[in-house]
């Protein structure tokens, strides 16, 4: 049976991807900080739950120990945005969190699991964002974190060109998950709801999950370098159709 690790599997895109990978026959190791959520998910999908804060070296080592030498798919999904202030008013602790999670945490997990991925001729899917394409007002910290993650992906693909591992990236636009905007706005539901207001059909977590599963299940000589996925209503970051 093939094995997959999904980080940030306790909600949104990560949870949907874990469910879809399990439906494809993978044994899924679900990693996140909220252990009750991943334990319930693991029970439902016959997977494994590992409490893992990607900013903790010790937790990531425990995740690598659970993988046990061979891994077919790693979905580096844990991350998110905190705040939407202009740089002049930025909360730098929030920037620290975004960089530690999206960039350095992802690097930490990738380093720890790479030997197991090489052993299985595996594939890594990095969940970045269209925020990596260009800066937008209030996005300085988040865009920097996701652009940093993208740069790491590009470097790794070159570094590992002669090794049996695929380095792939999915770059989503607007996805209406329950928690992404809530986290960004510190739990302010009204501000979170306003992000999606009037947009007939933002992407769902499953829309992105299905694309991730497709990328991860191509034959091992096929590398999907980067997929940009947006709702039809979002032609560009600043061009969103609202009814
Ligand atoms: N929603 C969007 O519009 C959108 C668009 C483009 C890209 N993305 C990216 O897609 C990914 C998933 O986002 P989402 O919309 O599904 O948001 P979400 O529901 O808020 O999911 C974020 C996940 O990351 C986990 N996480 C956060 N910090 C972590 C840490 N230090 N260690 C381990 N896990 C951590 C959370 O789990 P715990 O809190 O349980 O640890 C949660 O499961 C993120 O990388 C996000 O930046 C989202």
The span between the termini is 46 Å
What compounds are bound to the protein?
A: NADP nicotinamide-adenine-dinucleotide phosphate
Q: What order do the helices and strands follow?
A: EHEHEHEHEHEHHHEEE
Strand content: 15-25%
Query: What level of helicity do the residues show?
Result: 40-55%
Report Rg: 17 Å
Shape: globular
Alpha plus pi helix count = 8
Extract low-pLDDT stretches.
none
How are the strands ordered across the major sheet? 3-2-1-4-5-6-7
What structural category do the secondary elements indicate? alpha/beta
Mean pLDDT: 98
Number of strands: 9
Main beta-sheet annotation: 7 strands, parallel
What features would you describe in this structure?
The protein is an alpha/beta fold. Helix content is 44%, strand content 16%. Helix 1 packs across helix 8, helix 3 (57-67) packs parallel to helix 4 and helix 4 (92-119) runs parallel beside helix 5 (140-159). It is globular, with a radius of gyration of 17 Å. The termini are far apart. The model has no long low-confidence stretch (mean pLDDT 98). NADP nicotinamide-adenine-dinucleotide phosphate binds next to helix 1, helix 4 and helix 6.
């Amino acid at each position: 049976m093939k094995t997959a690790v999904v980080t940030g599997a306790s909600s949104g895109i990560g949870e949907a991807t874990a469910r879809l990978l399990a439906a494809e026959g993978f044994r899924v190791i679900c990693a996140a900080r909220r252990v009750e959520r991943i334990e319930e998910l693991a029970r439902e999908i016959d997977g494994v739950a590992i409490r893992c804060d990607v900013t903790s070296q010790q937790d990531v080592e425990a995740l690598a120990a659970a993988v046990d030498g061979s891994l077919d798919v790693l979905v580096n999904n844990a991350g998110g945005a905190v705040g939407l202030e202009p740089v002049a008013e930025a909360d730098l602790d929030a920037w620290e969190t975004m960089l530690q999670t999206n960039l350095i945490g992802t690097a930490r997990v990738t380093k720890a699991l790479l030997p197991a991925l090489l052993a299985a001729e595996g594939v890594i899917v990095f969940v970045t964002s269209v925020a990596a394409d260009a800066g937008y007002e209030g996005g300085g910290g988040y865009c920097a974190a996701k652009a940093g993650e993208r740069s790491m992906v590009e470097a790794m693909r070159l570094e590992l060109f002669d090794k049996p591992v695929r380095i792939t990236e999915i770059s989503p636009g607007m996805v209406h998950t329950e928690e992404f905007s809530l986290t960004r706005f510190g739990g302010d539901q009204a501000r979170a709801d306003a992000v999606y207001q009037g947009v007939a059909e933002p992407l769902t977590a499953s829309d992105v999950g299905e694309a991730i599963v497709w990328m991860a299940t191509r034959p091992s000589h096929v590398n999907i370098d980067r997929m940009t996925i947006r709702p039809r209503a979002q032609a560009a970051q600043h061009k969103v159709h609202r009814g």
